[in-house]
Each structure stands twice: as structure tokens, then as C-alpha cells.
Amino acid sequence: MFPKQIVVLGGENEPDFLETLRKEGWTVLPVRSATQLGALNRDTDSTACGLLLAGAQFEKQLPRFRSLLLSTDFEWVVLLEQQMLEISEVRQFVYECCYDYHHRPIDAKRLLVTLGRLRGKALLRHRQYDVEAPIGELIGEHPVMVQLRKNAQRIARSQANVLITGESGTGKELVARTIHRLSDRSHGVFQAVNCGALPGSLVQSELFGYEKGAFTGASERRLGRIESASGGTLFLDEIGDMALEAQVNLLRFLQEGTIERLGSPHPIGVNVRVVAATHVDLMGRVRQGGFREDLYYRLNVCTIHIPPLRERPSDIIPIAQHLIACHAENLGVPKRRLSSESVQALVNHAWPGNVRELTNRLSQGLVMSSGRFIKPKDMGLEAGVEPSIYPLDKERENAEREALRIALAINQGNRSKVARSLGVSRATLYRLLNKHQLLDLADATS
């Protein structure tokens, strides 16, 4: 049976009504730190419900609470003063981050009903995610890709805007489509716009549309990309290349949820989720004056970073095998296998073009190969030398270093807590920290 446990976050003192919850069979778990919340979030078999207590400084703490709530797999109810709902930022927070809200003064019976529905929703989702939802073509078992899939699932369940970062060719649009498919907007349109390919003179009309007669040649009304995506997802690729003038109007849309077609003074409400992507350092653009800082923070509510292919070499061959299966039929050629030399060549290649380059080379290999196997020369690659990229001791070192970094972050560098969480002695921990040059991340707590 799914336990009646609820995490309580916020508030300086424990409210009296929590005792009522305990009498009704709820186990109340007060949380005072992000570390505590993270530990409870990992124990999703027993905890999946949260109650956020909004205090007097709640409006100023919204960014912190948004980050905390979206980092968990919990369903949340926020308890606040009714007048707080008159603030647009608070309403947006409740909409994006919470299952429901309850306002003071406390109506214990109504709150219990709300929490009962909350628990039911949490139970349904708990059962749904016992088996990982299908992620389509986000292939790879490298730890960063496993985490990326989890993050995509978690973000998809919210309404928050998303910024996807990564080098060209890493698959940013694929991640955006995955988020759309896993969201409750999957029935709507996925509208992709390449901001870098739009001439500055056409950005306004393309994004916001225009009325008949708005300018010479406007012979009929045309809906813009934003309006066409209403009810679905708008994907703004290469957002860093958008002209500053267009950034102003995009910011206004994100703030107000309305647009104005060219030639029309009447605002139009549009319900769309925005997912943006960039291969450039947007904050660097902000510092250089090429990108608006307020727009950056509107877009960057949640971030997903896609690592380059060279940083996850263990995923190269699984991705290659998937691409061969997908593209052989499309190209009208037999499905072929990779020779052992090709496997080595693929693993040893630097992949400056990432998955896009891998797709291109494999397509070339499928077309150019004459036998059952794709050889390195068919893909325009040099034959691979005997690989030394997967020695077990190297993989073990990488896993050790990553585990140490995570444990240090969770336990705020406390060596005793880190040792206990990793199941090793203090002496072993010190040896590992010294080995991986992480002593400076740990404190001197004994």
C-alpha cells in the first residue's frame, strides 16, 4: 500500500493543522534544506506528496521554491494567503509547479480532501513511472544520457519553458520533440522555428502573423508560428541568433501570453509552451549586449544540456546500430552490419559534428558498401587501430570520480557523511579523494 506520507517545505514554525493531518493517518516529514528534500525525493517508493507553506516573503522566494519543486518527482499543494493569488508571478508559479493550492484560513476538511486527491494523483504517477516511459530516439546508457532522459520526463510533466543547450548536431530538436510527446500537450502542434534562418525583416510576420493589407503584398490574413502552435509546443531553435527587435516582442508574449498580428491593434491570447535551443553561450551574448537578459531568464526556467558525442563514447555504437536500422529502409539499401574495423574507427573518431555527423557517415556507408559489412572507407573514415578506449580500469576510475563528486555535493563536503553514503571507511574515502584530486571539495570535518 502506498504510504500516507507528506513532505512539508517552508514556514518558520510548524502550524497547528499538521497535528490534524497526523491524526488522520498522515506521516508528516518537515524539510529544512535542499539536501533533505533531495534525499526524500530519491526514496520515491515511500514519498511522493508535498505541501509548501508560503510565508510573508514568498514572492521574493519564488525562484528558489520553483527550483526546489521542479527538482522533485512530488505532487505539490501550496498553502498561501488568498491575496497572494492577485500577483501574476505567484499565479504562474502555482500553475507551473503545483497540483493545487489551499488558502488561509485553514479549512481542515477541505484540505484533507485536497491532499487525498494529491495522494491519488501521486499514486497514479508512481505506478506509471515504475517502468520508464518510452523515450524514442534518446539512445545511450552513459550516466549523462540516463539522467537526461529522467530530466526530460520530469520537465515534460510541467508547463515550464525550457532551454536546451549543446553543440550543433547533438540532437536538441529531438529532445524538444521528446518533451512535447511526453507532455499533456502531445495532442497539439509541435511548431519548429529556426531563428537563425529567418531574415530580420521577416521575423515579426513569421512569428506573430499579419492581417490582410498590413503591408504591400499581404493579400490575406496569415497566422504566425506562435499562434499556429496554440495548445502545443513552440520550438525556437538557435534562439541566440534572434534579432534584438524580435526579442522585445517575444519577451512581451512570454510575459503577457498575448500577441498582436501586424496590422491589428487587438491582442490575441495564445496558450503555448516555449522550448528554445542554442549552441552558443547565451549568458555570454547577454554580457556582450546581443541578447536580452530578461528574455534569457524567461526562457531558461528549466535547462537541459546535451553533452557532445565525444564525451560519451560508450553510446556511439548503440546509436550507430539504431541509425543503421532506421536509415537502410529510407535509403532503399539492405541493412548492413559494422565490421570490427568500423567499430574501432567510429569509437576513435572525434565527432566534431556529433550525432548529425554520425548519421551522415553511416548513410554514406550504407550506400557505398558493397558487401554485408560497412567498412571504414565506406564512411570516409580511416581504419581504426586496436582500441584502448574502453579499458576497465579507466571506466572504473571515471565511475569512482563521478560517485565521489555526487556524494560530496549532496553532503556538502562533510567527509563523515560522504563515507557513510558511499559505504566506505574514512581512510578509504581519504585515499579516493586524494587519488582523484578532490580533497579541496571536502571539508576537514572529523
UniProtKB/TrEMBL annotation:
Signal peptide extent: none
PROSITE patterns, per the entry: SIGMA54_INTERACT_1 (PS00675), SIGMA54_INTERACT_2 (PS00676), SIGMA54_INTERACT_3 (PS00688), SIGMA54_INTERACT_4 (PS50045)
Highest taxon of source: Bacteria
InterPro entries assigned: AAA+_ATPase, AAA_lid_NorR, Homeodomain-like_sf, HTH_Fis, P-loop_NTPase, Sigma_54_int, Sigma_54_int_dom_ATP-bd_1, Sigma_54_int_dom_ATP-bd_2
Ranges where the Sigma-54 factor interaction domain occurs: 138-367
Keyword line: ATP-binding, DNA-binding, Nucleotide-binding, Transcription, Transcription regulation
UniProt cross-references to Pfam families, sorted A to Z: AAA_lid_14 (PF25601), HTH_8 (PF02954), Sigma54_activat (PF00158), VpsR (PF20161)
Keyword Secreted annotated: no
Protein name: Sigma-54 dependent transcriptional regulator
